[in-house]
Design a protein that fits this description.
The complex is a heterodimer. By secondary structure, chain A is mainly alpha-helical. Helix content of chain A is 51%, strand content 0%. The longest helix of chain A is centred in the middle third of the chain and has 16 residues, at 88-103. Chain B is an alpha/beta fold. The longest helix of chain B has 20 residues, at 117-136. The chains are: A mainly alpha, B alpha/beta. Chain A binds chain B through residues 29, 31-39, 43-44, 49, 51-52, 81-85, and chain B through 397, 401-405, 407, 440-441, 466-471, 484-488, 491, 493.
Chain lengths: 174, 677
Amino acid sequence: MEDSVLTGQEHDPDFVSQIIRYGGHDVQTCLQCGNCTGVCPVSLKTPYKTRNLIKLCQYGYKKIFFSIPWICAGCHRCYEHCPADIDPAEVFVAIRHIQVRERGVPRWIRDNVGLILRNGFGAVPSDDIRRYRERQGLEPLPNTLPGYRTALEELATIFRRTGFDRILGLEEKK
Amino acid sequence: MGDRGGAGGPRIGVFVCHCGSNIGGTVDCPAVAEYATTLENVVVARANIYTCSTVGQEEIKKQIREHGLDRIVVASCTPRLHEATFKRVGEEAGLNPYMVHMVNLREQCSWVHQGDKERATEKAKELVRMGVARARMLEPLTAQELGVERRVLVIGGGIAGIQASLDLAAQGLEVVLVERLPSIGGRMAQLDKTFPTGDCAICVLAPKMVEVLHTPGIRLMTYSEVREVAGHAGSFDVRIERKPRYVDESKCVGCGICAENCPGGAPSEFDMGIGRRKAIYVPFPQAAPLKYTIDPASCIHFKTGKCGLCRKNCPTGAIDFEMKPQEVRVRVGAIIVATGFDPYTPHVHGYWGYREFANVITALELERMINASGPTRGEVRRPSDGAAPKRVAFIQCVGSRNWKATSNKYCSRVCCMYTMKLAQLLKEHYQDISTSVYYIDIRAFGKGFEEFYHRVRSMAGVEYIRGRPARLTEDPRTKNITIRAEETLLNKITEREFDLVVLSIGMVPSEGTEALGRMLGIPRSPDGFFQEVHPKLRPVDTSRDGVFICGCAQGPKDIPDTVAQAKAAASSAAAMLARGKVILEPTTAEVDEALCEGCGLCASLCPYGAPSLVETGSGKKARIQKALCHGCGTCAAACPRLAITVRGFSDEQLESEMAAALPGEGEKVENGRGVGG
């Protein structure tokens, strides 16, 4: 995917056992049949094919994953169909764990969680919607979580108590 | 080494084997032999490089004669490998063969303690000490010989059972061949051609079926089932039920006038339900014997009491609605199980729309359609509209190689090859047809198989797509099937439309395998097929002496392998019967009737059905049928009254061995005071 010739330098012999350690299935028994790809809603719309990603795990191509595993929607349809009884979705969760441990949380996730803490939403209404709401005489934001400041505070408490804010690197900002 | 035998005591020789470096690399064998000489009653001890070699055997004989040994301990490998060897050596030197004891220094010592020479050597010494203690208590035993019935029961009349029967008969043995269905022939009879040679299946099978009918030594019982098996190797008592055909076999000439006039009918089992048969039928034209059978479930006479057209029309008066099941008892010396397989049924687990979409069929259904004597006279037709398909897809590994709990993990071994054959046949029948094979791996390992694969791949209009289909959808109007699958070699998801989809189904154990296994007392492997004793060296033997397995009863396999196994099973059974006797190991359980209270615990626990309770003058007592006893000791261990002893494994023998294992007692032995007695 990156280099046209793989030299073995990119091969991390520990990757498979690391995936298992972080709760993923043993990917080494994957038959590479491609059934997972065919049932995967993400594979249908992106260049990422589930089977191919599992092959990259088998190969120990760890560094390639530090941008990929977050695309999995976690629907587990791959697992339902897998004849080797592997759950690729779990494998991607394990790889996310590994990534957070080793490289920290990706910036876009941290930003997203920051939005949730501020607004109660991961996505903020666009300017168009804001104007539309204004024309209709509504609040600038839908009146769900932002309407209940105590709920937002509780959310912040949960993040703090579970250490989630520390993992995300949010606490220093405050 | 002095003569430590003592006057009148046992005279023991100890032989410690290096087994090359297998034992010698970890255990200091000369030191163990040296130690053995310090044990009481040990007259001589030697270490050898290979005790099982001719040189090693001669050495044992020499020492037995020179020192007047009356028992020996061989400390080497597992008794499973060489106990028979050393018993024979002892016997040739004048010992009772049961005065030979083996100590396992390989599997139980050197192999498991590699890297710790010192402690391994200490353990070896202790094992030898225990063995010597046991040897002191050995008693001569005599094996019993029993005569055999020179007759073999073959269960299953497919190609495996047919071949085994013919081979046995050719050796002058009597055969009772029992087939559950109205005709022999089995699954092979359903096939059109055979891979990789393209032989017509029935053309090569039918002559063998006819030969079965005309071989005087073979007693064929079709439409019959084995109900009960008792006895032991050399003499099994078998109860067979002959199901009523409602047609007198001795009168039926197979003219078929009955079927022509029969108004009843049902889907044909032989044609996988595609065509229909009459209520009175032969399953296929080459059926052997060519005798008609009435299926009461579809017969109007059996349902309403009316009709009876077959009886009216039969020119020989063979129809007999009053026929009852018959019981036949035979005594045989050996049994060959050739019960074959059933095709995997994909609808059970909702595989790819089978039985949901009309144009998804199984390979066996296609096999029947493409067969000239099949329900469509050799024309391949879409079930939805009877049109000839132009685009056919095969899906491989259906019901095979699936590690989900509800499926089969194993490879069924024939689907890759029969798909190639069917692709070739389709191409031969229809020039304009295209075939796409969805596969995970192609397995073409047999003789001529890879060459066949090469030939099929080179054919125009045959393509191989490496990917397991993810989804099949049916066009509600055309009933065409669209397959979505990743072409893994392209890293692309493909969606292709087909007129007909064929599921390349695998094999499962035939119906009744479990029950038959229980009846015969033979185990099955985790895949559900019958278990052979050793996958390489005893492929057709079962753990029950005198019972052999062959063909797909043992596991999925193709026709060449099935025939080879059938011949092997016939040969093994014949070899056993040719000796004219079976030898019963004397290491069996014995009941002391004075102690037995007749509780029956032994009978309920024995895995071989050897003990039974008999009424005696002094109440119920357990008796062991020696021929059934394997000497496992379950009964002896369980008996609350300690009334049961397994010869060669008496309490005294085992206790002396255990006592020698205990450190305190061991020291006493080293000091020459001994623990035995």
